[in-house]
Amino acid sequence: MRLPKAGTIEVVPSILSADFAKLAEELAEIESAGVKMVHIDVMDGHFVPNITVGPPVVAKLREHSKLVFDCHLMISEPAKYVERFFEAGANHITFHIEAADEPEKLIDKLHKLGCTAGICLNPETPVESIESVAALCDMVLVMTVHPGFGAQKFLAKAVKKVVAVRELVGAEIRVEVDGGIDPHTTPVVVSHGADTLVAGNAIFAKPDRVAAINAIREACR
Ligand code: DX5
Ligand code: ZN
Prior knowledge:
Blueprint: E1 10-13, H1 23-32, E2 37-43, H2 55-62, E3 68-74, H3 82-88, E4 92-96, H4 103-113, E5 116-121, E6 139-143, H5 158-169, E7 174-178, H6 186-191, E8 196-199, H7 201-204, H8 209-219
Parallel strand pairs: 1-8, 2-3, 3-4, 4-5, 5-6, 6-7, 7-8
Helix pairs in contact: 2-3
Bound molecules: D-xylitol-5-phosphate and zinc ion (ZN).
D-xylitol-5-phosphate binds next to β2, β8 and α7.
C-alpha cells in the first residue's frame, strides 16, 4: 500500500463526511468504486477548531481496508505523533508547514519509518514557505478551504497556489487539493495542475457513493 506514482488523477474520498458509525462499510463501498486511497482527517482542537480521530481509530480501520491511508494531520506538534499514526497503519502522512518547526527533519523521519511524506499549506500561507522542502516530499497538499470542517465553499483564490506549487515541484510529485472539491470545481483544479482530489461532502453526502466518485472522475475529462 503505497502512494500511487505521480502521473494519474486520483479521487480520494475523505471520511470526514462519512457515517462514523459505519466506517468499515463506507470504506468497502468506496473501495468497490476502484479508488486507491482514502483521506483521513486528524484534528486536535488546537491547530484547528475541531476534533476528529486518532491512532486507535486508524488502527481499527486498517483491519478493514487495503486502501492507501492518506492521513492529513491538522495538529500541533506533528513530529510527536507520526510514529503512532504510522504504526496504526498510515501509509502517507501529511503535516502542516504552519505546525512544523523542522519540516525537513520530519520528512526524513517519515521516510525512515517507511511512510511517504506530504506537506500542506493553509490558504493564507505563501508557497515560499515550502520552497526549500517541497521537493523532498511525495505529495504537496494545497488547502482549498480553511481547514477544520467539511462541506465548505471552495476558495477560488487557491487555484493560483495550485499553479505555483505545480511549477515548484514538477511532474514527479503529486499535488493534492482538499476542500470544496466536487464535479464543478474538479475541472478547474485539474486544469491548473492538481492530480489528487480529496472530496468529502461531494461523495459522502450522496446516497450513492460510487456514482458520486464517478461523477468527479467524469468531470476530469
Ligand atoms: C477539511 C478537511 C477536508 C475535508 C474536505 O479541513 O481537511 O479533508 O474533509 O471536505 P469537503 O470535501 O466536504 O470540502
Ligand atoms: Zn483533509
